[in-house]
Every structure is written in structure tokens, then in C-alpha cells.
Amino acid sequence: MAIPNDSRGLRFPCECVSAGPGGYSDPWTEIARRKLLPSGTKEEILNLVAREPKTISQLAEALDLSPPSVHTHINDMMKSELLRESEEWEKKYPTERYYEPNFPVFRAEECAEFRTLCEEMAEQVVGLFERKRQKMERAFRRTGLSKQGWELSDVTQCLYANMYRSARTRLEQRGLLSPRKKHANGAEWIFWAEESETDAE
């Protein structure tokens, strides 16, 4: 890795584009960095089991793939802990193994109230950003960036990202957000999925 010996290297917007040690970016970045969902087939499997747990034979039929091929994908996803066996379904059908996502999946019909709350909080963040605009302008003028021809608008995404990460750290410290979890393969991540409204129709 071409990083000077006396430097820890640059921190890019996302750890997913960096070869260096991270921990500063989104808690789902390790999914991308470790290529835990490298193929469309694995994503298709997650889509199929999200609504209802399925067996390898059911997945093979739905995907028009051989059971051994699906079994390979299932093994990979079990090792990475993206899938788990469905205890509830295996109690009903004890002779077969059923698989389901090992992370929360938001149903489209369940999200309306959450969307409203998120929009309300987003408006508050926008208002805060607007109120702090002059202070950001003054702070920016004291940097060398303005002398290099950059404008505040060129770095506002960076400022927002740092605010967002700092807020997440504080929320984790106060127990209002769950920190990223360490998984069996050493990766640390939190993951979820949201069902689109069109998929639910």
C-alpha cells in the first residue's frame, strides 16, 4: 500500500474505496470491501427468502439453477452470516432446512410511519445546516482550500459526512444506535434491507 511511512494515509469518503484500515465509515461498508455480495445470484437469493424462508430445492427451481450451485451460494452466505436457518419454519417442516436473511428486512407496508419520522428529522438537519452556513463560510475562508480555487460548495458533502458520522458515534455511545457487530469471519458490519413499494404490490 503506497502510503508514506510517516502518514496514516488519507481518509476517503468511504472505506469501500480504500485499502487501508478503516472503522470511520458506514457500518455496512465491510459488506462491499469483503465482497460478501459479489454476484447477482446471492442478491436474488436474498430477495427470494426475504418474504418467506425457502429451501435449497425451492431456490434452485425459482432461479433455474442446479441445487449444488445454489448450495454453494448458501454455504458462502451462511459463512458470512448474511443468511441463517429459519428456526420457525424448520419446526413446521423438520425434514428440511429453510433459509432467511440474517438481518432485518423492512416490509413496504410497515414503513409509512417510519418514513414520516425520518422526513421530519431530515428537515431538522436541513434547517441546522442552513443556520450554520455563515459559520461554515468563515471557517472555510481560513483554510488553504479557498486559496487553491475551491469553494465551500465543493466540500459541503465532506462536512455533512463528518457531522453524520459524529452524530452516529454519539448515538452509539448513548445506546440509541447499535454499534457494528463482529461476525464469525472477522468482518464488522450492520446490515438491513428495505422492500420497495413496487415489490410489495
Mean pLDDT: 89
Structural class: mainly alpha
Number of strands: 6
Report helical residue fraction: 40-55%
Return the string of H and E elements: HHHHEHEEHHHEEEH
Strand order within the widest beta sheet = 1-2
Largest sheet: 2 strands, antiparallel
Contiguous helical run count: 9
Give a structural overview.
47% of the residues lie in helices and 7% in strands. It is built from nine helices and six strands. The strands form three sheets. The chain has a two-stranded antiparallel sheet with strand order 1-2. The protein has a two-stranded parallel sheet with strand order 3-6. A two-stranded antiparallel sheet has the order 4-5. Helix 3 packs across helix 4. The chain is elongated, with a radius of gyration of 22 Å.
Give the arrangement of secondary structure elements.
Blueprint: H1 29-33, H2 40-51, H3 56-63, H4 67-79, E1 83-85, H5 87-92, E2 99-101, E3 105-106, H6 112-131, H7 133-141, H8 156-173, E4 181-182, E5 188-189, E6 193-194, H9 197-200
Parallel strand pairs: 3-6
Antiparallel strand pairs: 1-2, 4-5
Helix pairs in contact: 3-4
Short synopsis of the structure:
With 201 residues, this protein is mainly alpha-helical. Helices cover 47% and strands 7% of the residues.
